[in-house]
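Instructor's aside before we start: the two examples that follow are unrelated to each other. I chose them only because their records fit on one page, so don't look for a connection. First example below.
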Amino acid sequence: MRSCTLLAVGLGLALLAGPGAAQQKVSKKVPPVLQFTVNDIDGKSVDLARYQGKVLLIVNVASECGYTPQYKGLQALHDKYAKEGLAVLGFPCNDFGAQEPGSEADIKKFCTTNYKVAFDMFAKVKIDGAAPSALFKYLTSKETNPKHGGPVRWNFEKFLIARDGTVAARFLSDVEPESDAVISAIRKELDKK
């Protein structure tokens, strides 16, 4: 009888704790920059919180721009630093010179065929104008990003996001991904554990 009572008490405690209670983990607070959901290049919904704890290089990209060859440098950064925690995120945008006119399928084919892009690519976004993407609105706002805010001027601007979710640096279009300035900033953030 005593073993039945102990079993019933044990079952009752398990039921009170709820299903999966033993597997429940306390997660760190997700930084504001990662509280967005976007679509990837294949149209699947992606919660940016999945990048929590990584160093991010967020870039607005275009296939028909004078800076398009920077895809090679972005891929090189991905190849060199992904294992250390860098994630390069490409966001195609047609707002600047109409230099990204194709569909997501066209963009994906172009990037993989010409530059062997393996870093994460997303659906086309609006950055300029009345209805910018929520992510880029956050990145460019002087309220949420006082140090590095301001409008995006052209394709291939780069936002470096630290592991804690702060915007650590911003690089204009003419700054090559493999420049000393970009690599030094990435290295500084990766070295922070």
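Example two begins here.
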Amino acid sequence: MRYEALNTKLRVLTGRLFTRADYEAMCKSGSIAEICSRIRENDSYRSALESLGASELRRGQIERRLSQALFGEYERLIKYVSDGALREYLSAFFLRHEFFIIKSLLGAVYGNKPAAYAPSELKSLLKKLPVDAAKLASAKTAQDFIYELRSTDFHSLLADAYAKRPTPFELERQLDLYYYMHLWKKREKLPDKHNREAMKNINGAEIDLLNIIWIYRLKKYYGFDGPRIYPCLIPVGLKLNGASLRRMADAGTVDELTDEIASGPYRDVFSPTGLNWPERAFAVAMRRICKSESRKRPESLSCLIGYISCKEMEINQIIKTIECVRYMVAPEAAFGYII
């Protein structure tokens, strides 16, 4: 496959990503309506937000519209990819967004709340999965919800997990494990060495970083010991093997865990400050890794994966900015939440 047309398109789209100055201007906005007005000036989001009325300017509604814009952009970009194996890998990669929606719907079931998405939205966002979106959204119990996923490859994992421990945490954990193992297997089947190596470095680093964050959170906020943490970890990665993950999981205290991280390959990512802001540390590291792979291997999917990752971060940043304005956080303090 030739990448010239795809990478040219990606350079144009990358130029539309919001800058630090854009976020600072948004943080100084006097209202959510003013932020949305600024977002609409960006060609990437104009059509997604133009029909929102004043009464619809809420975080959830805006987040859904931005997600729809991301779905649309992904579908336009994948048309530049002609190789079947590469398209399969990209479909596996983008499954993270379908899973985000499934987790949201599952949370609504456990919270006895209506689905946050309209039926037409769900039909569009979940069209790549063999599910009836309307029935999935109308499920009243977790069992019914899982049943509506019966035609998917991950149904049995959820059903087995629910039978043993019917908690939303356990079900979301199974979705995460399925996603990363499925993606790892698709990576191994990529047709050329450039893509296999590039995606190994990107996917492997992401898995390593997530495993560190999960160990840290489970130990600090839930008091989990090693045996309870082991099943939560993704059993593949780039620089962290099973022994190093076990050492972190077995750390007796958070301070011991911090020392273990500080002596490992990701010490520069998770400095003490980084552990206070793990999402920021993760985002900064992944952005750096994707840029590095794009420079080293432009004849690969690195540029596309890097762009989609930046777009995900951008949407997260927009939502954080909206929340800061909503709760009247001073602009100077709000800047601290921006990557």
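Residues 290 and 306 are 5 Å apart (CA to CA).
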